[in-house]
Amino acid sequence: xxxxxxxxxxxRVVAAHLGLIAFISLCMFPFLMILSISLRxxxxxxxxxxxxxxxxxxxxxxxxxxxxxxxxSLVTPPFPVLLWLWNSIKVALISAFIAVLLSxxxxxxxxxxxxxxxxxxxxxxxxxxxxxxxxALIAIFSIFDYLGSYVKVLGVDSxxxxxxAYAGGIALHVWTIKGYYDTIPVEIEEAAVVDGATHxxxxxxxxxxxAKPILMVVFLLAFIGAIIEYPVASVLLxxxxxxxxxxxxxxxxxxxxxxxxxxxxxAILSGMPITLVFVLSQRWMVGGLTAGGVKG
Amino acid sequence: MAGxxxxxxxxxxxxxxxxxxxxLEIQDxxxxxxxGPSGCGKSTLLRSIAGLEEISAGELYIGKKRVNDEPPSKxxxxxxxxxxxxxxxxxxxxxxxxxxxxxxxxxxETNAAVDRxxxxxxxxxxxxxxxKALSGGQRQRVAIGRAIVRKPDVFLFDEPLSxxxxxxxxxxxxxxxxxxxxxxxxxxxxxxxxxxxMTLANRIVVLSAGRIEQVGAPLELYHRPANLFVAGFIGxxxxxxxSGQLIAADEKLAQIKLKSGAVVKAAVDARRLxxxxxxxxxxxxxxxxxxxxxxxxxxxxxxxxxxxxxxTTYFYLEVAGSETSFIVxxxxxxxxxxxxxxxxxxxxxxxxxFDEKGQACPVxx
Lengths: 296, 365
Ligand SMILES: Nc1ncnc2c1ncn2[C@@H]1O[C@H](COP(=O)(O)OP(=O)(O)O)[C@@H](O)[C@H]1O
Ligand SMILES: [Mg+2]
Description:
The structure holds 2 protein chains of 2 kinds. By secondary structure, chain A is mainly alpha-helical. Chain A is 63% helix and 3% strand.
């Protein structure tokens, strides 16, 4: 592409770059701030962005390593941050997996099958999810409290209860995936059905492979959602060893003493799995998987 | 290999009825073409045969078996879709092997079947490619190959060539014809293109608005159209129609007075109509002649447009009683200018008479 360009074009490019750089700085600032706080000795929320003195004390604590303070006393990690991180990852992975499983199949039914009241069900699903979860916190707590008296592993203070609660929030994912299915020509699955496939086989061998990118997107969204979720987790999990990182890091900020530095290190840690999953899943999020199937 | 019997097949989508009772028998090994204008229900009928649409009423037999309630996979049919509908994430080989894989065929068996189909369609070098990397014509071949591999009793084609460019279409048409000769399976082919229908079919089924207008061999439809619709649909350019009045009819000949006052004769038996009845007179552009003296069975017209194709020339005439231009085919070097009045001869054995309802009077030759 070598389109002939106007002279003024150069200046517009420069201006656009400046604008973009300003915007990126704005986005990056909070992150850099947190990073700076976590590397600053002591627990101060305010201070210069570039710390005068770099100290890894907060990181050591976050990673579960004791260190010698300046006055000679040994500072031991107050909370099991790595265990919380592991809890978060475990819950997020399993609930994201279940969310994808449920929403792909539900979306298939909504996109391809004929049943009464399909449209209304879709809308109802979305409307119900529109209510803020916070409003239902008491209900969620009492449901799982009650469940726990019958099925222990689904009771309060169990990760499975949290996973189940998260897996319920798939309405948006169902919509997302259905929207993608709708863009895939039905004829391709019909061809599979004439070729001898059952509905299930047409779904598994034909539709699903074409829908990979959107499944990855939904997995990622569900994963991130579970990692950063606070209200439900804070109601369902109580014992220190069971907490997720999002709930646990709040313990650094108790009334009398705000441990900003330790909190910042934990906060950055919680971003790690998200980054990792994002990088790993990116290779699946490619376009053009349905290209060539039908004549457009 | 199997014949088909369709008995009173009806199909409605909600309140809208798309097929109004289709009765048809298709012989084993026949190449039958459903032709009709877009939206007349061809695809719906084909999809009903395939089992992709439930029929609302009627009975469908494939072979000896009633298949109304059988799923597509149990009907022994293979379908080629207008949009190819290849599996985009599979290679050509996998596309063609898919049905056998589902049926649990062994690897050797599958490979043999795929190789045989690839050879017939000359797509052997493409087996490892994805559909994305194929041209339209190649994709169409793969779609056909996928059907062949299954060794179906009945092939169903839904406008398979309509997405190809003109020259490729002609080439594929010939190959489909050959393929039918080789496989000798029953083939049901849907198209809106009457040329495809004429060239491919053993028998043509002309559909209009969910009803069968006429069934017959290509030349039978060409020479003895049952009604105005078929007469106008088969043949290119289409038949000329001029409205007129029946003057006299005996068992061999009918005399018609056209709107312009000219009196013409047609070799049809119009005795079932009363003299004075309003009729439509029809003649094909290729049968009207242009180098004639005014006299019996002739008609005058003013040239509006001249189309020169090289070997032939079409004159578009303004004629009283004809809604559209009256087209006459003449040799390529025939000279005549726009605005000139010319005399058109109407050979009585090539003329048709239709009653007010559009039904043809039987020809007597
Ligand atoms: N799924 C459907 N729902 C409602 N109407 C349909 C559906 N499919 C086809 N039709 C209607 O049935 C008629 C015939 O369609 P179709 O068989 O596709 O025509 P053709 O293939 O001859 O062009 C059309 O009027 C179309 O609008
Ligand atoms: Mg169609």
